[in-house]
Fold:
Amino acid sequence: MTDTTVSSRIKNEIESNDVVLFMKGTPVFPQCGFSAAVVQVLGELGAKFKGIDVLEDPSIRQGVKEFSNWPTIPQLYVKGEFVGGCDIVREMYASGELQELLESRGVKVDA
Amino acid sequence: MAVADRIREKLSSGLAPLRLEITDDSHKHAGHAGARPGGESHFTVEVVSGAFEGLSRVERQRLVYRLLEEEIAGPVHALALRTIAPSERR
Structure:
């Protein structure tokens, strides 16, 4: 069970930031190839995002898996909505859907 | 049973796939966090199944993750997925 304080912290992050990436490492120094790939996609789209390093906090690392019902990291949220992990982000970027999603949610991109 | 064989068995019975390709990428991650001696920690799975028809990307992956719950909680550190419905085959 996710601790309620952990899930409310996660909820607060995804509600107060347009684009949130739960990742291993930081946007500048990703510690995992899958996290790095999502950072790169967001960079190419010119989307501002908040990176949350789950390696810094084991309770968030476990908590976000339960919160999203998704067993792996990274996890991308846009406007409070779960988008997916690395595979989905890459597929959506390749097809143009990710850019569409960001624009339709009113997130500024300058690709 | 080898991890790859367990993945094959579970996805075969859970998804009745038309195509199922499992690639062990562990050698690319030797020495990296989550890699295990003997490999079998990093996999790429490409699966074509009618079970994905009408499901979103997130729903498809959740379905696979659910079938492989034990493996993901255990030896599998990373699992890259391509989930394809028969109608999307190129």
Summary: The mean pLDDT of chain B is 91. The radius of gyration of chain B is 13 Å.
